[in-house]
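FIELD: query
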Amino acid sequence: MKIQNETTKGFIYGLSTFVMWGVFPIYFKLLENIGAVEILAHRIIWSFVILIILLRVKNRLLNLKIILRDKKIVLMLFLCGLLIATNWGIFIYAITTDRILQTSLGYFINPLLSILLAAIFLKEKLSIAAKFSVFLVFIAICIQVIDMGELPIISIALPLSFAIYGLLHKKISVPSLEGLFVETMLIFPIGIIYLTYLGINNQSSFAFNVNGILLMICGIVTILPLLTFNSAAIRLKLSTIGYMQYISPTLSMLIAVFLYNENLGISKIISFGLIWLGLFIVSFDGIKRKKE
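FIELD: result
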């Protein structure tokens, strides 16, 4: 009974996580009159504030000393910080410039790109199903190139930055909360310097108004789903988490089309269809292999 209760809690945490990530575009759309880099700087700073409070409450600040003594881990976490900041920045830019569909496409690509990077850098063997699925993603990107007349940079950069971020974390053995804090701490000065520059030149959008409140909420918006995700991850099977992650880009796609009237043309429909097919094939192959 206890196991069932924990699984139910895990499902609720997981569903909450991916729904929150899926509706992120609505929140960032409220900030579309503010520059993406300024929003990113606030996201870094307020995330840092939330994380240090959490570590203090959980009495885990002493754990940071162990991490910070290892220069190799610090360097890796700095790279992780730059990658996640890049991912956040691209996402914010895409949302505030009416490119939500491109972010949705990118996050659908993400699991398959992670599989490819694991095969290249971690020497994990690709099944025939996985190879075919990665090939379908390549075809989907080619269709977008033909339709747009250029590379779909957002749809490629988003999953690539996050997949490399995940790959680096595979090589670092640190607790997730402490790791995220150190990553944020190391890029924190960049955010402070940029916001100081804006303030000195009277270009800052931060004030004691609605925009100021929304910018301060950036920290909660960033950290809360990460906490619920970690709570889900310890209660659910990895495969269950894997299937649930498709909730977020699906919600984003629906929001883009039905709330913000982004055009879901035939090329995007075909691209999404190919990627969904690839995800289905990989998922079905994974289930089949577990049963064997």
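FIELD: remark
The mean pLDDT is 88.
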